[in-house]
Design goal:
By secondary structure, the protein is α+β, with helices and mostly antiparallel strands. The protein has a single domain, classed as Gcn5-related N-acetyltransferase (GNAT) (Aminopeptidase, 3-Layer(aba) Sandwich). It contains 2 helices and 5 strands. The longest helix is centred in the N-terminal third of the chain and has 17 residues. The two termini are 20 Å apart. 16% of the residues are buried.
Length: 94
């Protein structure tokens, strides 16, 4: 199963670990352990270096980009995704 992940962190909370907890903790645990998601995808502006660095920490790789993706000057978006580390892994016992 494939799943899209969306998240926005208000500027006053950026750099305080909110994204790290959401992506690395809650979202990955939910996708890998409970929803049986094999491929997790998201979209990020390519000039958002902090977000891209965070996604890479959790195994995401940018697979491609789209020019003029959104109503933003010079908007280029990357499309990172990651595969579950062990797709044969079954869901945890309930």
């Amino acid at each position: 199963m494939r799943c899209d992940l969306g998240m926005a962190v208000p500027s006053r909370w950026q750099g305080k670990g909110v994204g790290h907890g959401a992506h690395g903790g809650a979202a990955s645990t939910l996708a890998d352990g409970w929803l049986n998601v094999i491929r997790l995808e998201l979209t990020v502006y390519t000039d958002n270096e902090r977000a891209i660095a965070l996604y890479r920490k959790f195994g995401f790789e940018i697979e491609g980009t789209h020019k003029a993706y959104a109503l933003r000057a010079g908007a280029v978006c990357g499309h990172p995704s990651r595969w579950r580390p062990d797709p044969a892994q079954s869901r945890p016992a309930e």
